[in-house]
Amino acid sequence: MLHQDYFQKPKPFLLGSYVNYITFPIEKSNLYWNFWIQTIHNINWGFTVDTTESDKTNNVKFSIYQKKAPENFRSIELDVGIVVDNLENSEYSIKVSGNYEFTEENNNMVIEIPGFDKIIDWKQGFFDDKAEEKKFKIGYNMVVMSMISLQSEVLSGMIEAQNIEWTDLPSTCWFDIFHDFLQIIHGVDLFLYKSNIGEFLKLADHLKAPRITEYCKKQMINGNGGISLKETIDLAEKWSLWDPRKLAQARCLADLKAQNWELDNLDDNLQEVIRDQMKTNAQLGPRTKYTIVGDGNGFMSRVVLVDPDWTVSDKHLPKRFVLKITSCMHVLNVLDQMNLPDKRESALWSIFEYEAQGLHNREVNLYEIFGKWDIDNLLLSPKVYFSKKFDSENQTKGFFGMEFVENAITRHLYINLKPYELHAVLKALAIFQAEGLKLNKEEQESVTGYDLEKIVGKMFSVSGLKGIFDQAREINPEELSETANRVEAFGLELVNFDMVKNLNTYLGIKKDVLVHGDLWSANIMWTEKENGELEVNKIIDYQSIQLGNPAQDLVRLFTSTLSGSDRRAYWEKLVEQFYEYFLEAVKDKNVPYTLEQLKESYRFYFVTGSLLMLPMLGPIAKVKLAEMTDPKEIEECRNILTEKAEIILEDMEHWHLYSRDTIKKWQGEGAETTL
């Protein structure tokens, strides 16, 4: 019964199982009764109890058949057990079993139940002779005949012994759970729900059935009905399916895959995409090396450095490349170290769960547009070799392979840049905006969909804002509490999604421009020149690509890279420099906005951009500082963050009051606005 090779695909379990009782009347005349059984996996079943010949044969005929709708299913093997209950002593119950294989031609399983003369004899105890309606009771159990090997000695023994008691199962495990449990073992693809997946995992653990555990893991990644990603992670941790702390320590792809089950079959996916998109027969050979890199900068992705062992030598194949795998699973370690309140953590999980796939796909779409432009050197964009989007058939793995930059470094929030060092970034951003003005309708739609309110709305609630300012104060409570308290007092006045959405229209800007959306220090790569100076090499991570206001990227860039004092002193000069680059790139033709409109955009967007940046200064910087060991270096970095945060807070207050007063003035003058 249990000796099939479990390494092969299991036999289909089309019937499932069904257990029930019927009562059959004792009559002087013989009867032929039809009964209905609930539909099990698209099969309509029926059975009959026939006593028309019982006086002659002394048997009761029990028949099971498929109702043809639309046609019979083939190759279904059944074990059927039947018990006619003896009401006085179960030892005298009549028990019989049968086995049958249904085919297209043979659709009627007949089992003869012996002892009809005893059943209708009231002295034998099969029915209550004093009852008004005299009936005997038939119990039946229908199951698939052949059980596949279960990789579970516990369950195998129970089935071999044909003795599964309630005490063998965990508490609260009802029969319907065990019924579906057996179906999954036999290859039926059932969709699990929030309400039952925990019970399946409990039962799989109790019966030591790894096939069910693996099935649940895949269902959890593909998405269960009603279960959030945070709840998925909680289940994974509870049943030791995945350990986020081990994931944080992963330094090779094997370690990563061991903790992040959605990466199963990643190698096969890579081979296929590389072959199709790079037009090569080369494959990644057995000596290919995968190393986790990125130093924790990626929030919704993991970056892997690949040293390929190409099986075929092609000149266009890279010697090394970076594999970026989009998965919000990786964010758990960052959230864990942030030590956020449950509500804020759940809000962040909601963001990552529902937006990760769209963010990845839009980034891939943008890189495809970059490929048409063929100006990566001007955009400071890495070359992308191949990519895989999320779609209806790929719900778990989005990735792309891109150029690897040797000896590149990131100058994080706790490093202050000089204003002139941003000129190269400003020029690349200006070209990016100028080229974006040429997008056709289809290209525009391919990078449209980013919704700031949908993504961060929960973070910008009353409790969310409190958390943001609490964490800003934690950078240096003595220095920052007073200013943070003053700005926090504005409350939800600080949040104005309508203004952000309609800023271009309100300021008279003719056309939305391409916006990187996440242009801050962590997404700028630097390399060292021969003279020892650092220069910008690449701008990366376009996951938040969108069409919007031209100052959005400037606010995030300046607040993250410059000291507070330098930003305050030089922001206008830097905006003017950017505008010069922009005019040069568009060649003064159809310029969509003026310099003053750009500056006014900066002033109006500053509060929103700073609210997005403050969580970076606090919790995320805390993660980076935790990796440092030199007390002097830690103190120096903390001082930089304190100064940066303090002046951001002061300027938030200033520009909020400016925006509020300006809007009131415009409204008083009768300007049409919804701000």
UniProtKB/TrEMBL annotation:
SMART domains registered for this protein in UniProt: CHK
Q: Which UniProt keywords apply?
A: Coiled coil
- What are the CHK kinase-like domain coordinates in residue numbering? 399-588
Q: Which spans of this chain does the record mark as coiled coil?
A: 256-283
Which superkingdom? Answer: Eukaryota
Q: Which Gene3D superfamilies match?
A: 3.90.1200.10
Its name, as the record gives it, is CHK kinase-like domain-containing protein
Q: Per its UniProt record, what SUPFAM superfamilies does this chain match?
A: Protein kinase-like (PK-like)
Per the UniProt record, the source organism is Caenorhabditis remanei (Caenorhabditis vulgaris)
